[in-house]
């Protein structure tokens, strides 16, 4: 028989029957599929019985899930009926009369869905309408389609957002890595420093500042009194080294220190009043991309000792007040040429600072 006849025999409209088929609670016995994948059904008398049973159980407000389990023999009919009665009482989904009918059926302990439906058979209930969702089942396919459409929109929006924001996220990660590299790694403080003249060994800062080794650091003092409150900054990264030592002296100590810088016994240390913010005593200028000098501040009785090695302008970590003016030009253009100056290499000839910088 066809759908129209099945609907007439059961009193259930075709939309509701299709709803039961779509939900899998009703599976027609005879079905076939054409070349396009569309299914067609030839309904039987047993299908009429199944539809009536489904309708009866739905009028007692059993869920589609429960009815499926009944037909598949997966449910304990008595336990399911008992639970449904309790839920119906709590939610007031059914009238008291229907609950009373179900309690009476429960006392008889039905063993299968046929027995259950036979015991539940009641003219009053059978004439009652189906749940609203069953009668309005035509909306369900539209709902499924809407869900599918929403899912498609979500996927499209997600992909679009990924296309828009992933490059920016990658850029932020790269910027973060660069920040970490420059701020945390490059600024790692250490007490290690290379020999300025020969790169033969590593010195610790105490050796640099307080040793009697005449081959290194004519500029830096050999000892510092703690009363002078020395302030040390040391930035070391591979061969990139930046050292700034600020020492505030008493008037007498300051005079002696400036005299020491200006009257080095074995080497000629250059004096420059032009290219720094303060007068400078220079022992290394541009040799092997190194600078070593001391800036003297007569007003504050302070000496700023500076050592720079392989440091381009973008990685300068010390204050520009303590760096030669136009550092980038000096570093990039003059470091490796004949104007480089290094007292540790024994160059004692006269040094004209103006010529070296221009």
Whole-Å distance between the termini? 108 Å
Q: What is the averaged pLDDT score? A: 76
Order of helices and strands: HHEEHHHHHHHHEEHEEHEEEEHEH
Record field, number of beta strands: 11
DSSP helical segment count: 14
Radius of gyration: 47 Å
Main sheet properties: 7 strands, antiparallel
Question: Which descriptor suits the 3D outline?
Answer: rod-shaped
Strand content: 15-25%
Unreliable spans are 185-215, 347-358
Helix content: 40-55%
What does this structure look like?
There is one protein chain. The protein is an alpha+beta fold and about 350 residues long. Helix content is about 45%, strand content about 15%. It has helices at about 5-10, 15-25, 45-60, 65-70, 75-90, 95-105, 115-120, 125, 130-135, 140-185, 205-210, 250-260, 325-335, 355, and strands at about 30-35, 40, 190-195, 200-205, 230-235, 240-250, 270, 280-285, 290-295, 300-310, 340. Strand 3 and strand 4 form a beta hairpin. The radius of gyration is 47 Å and the shape is rod-shaped.
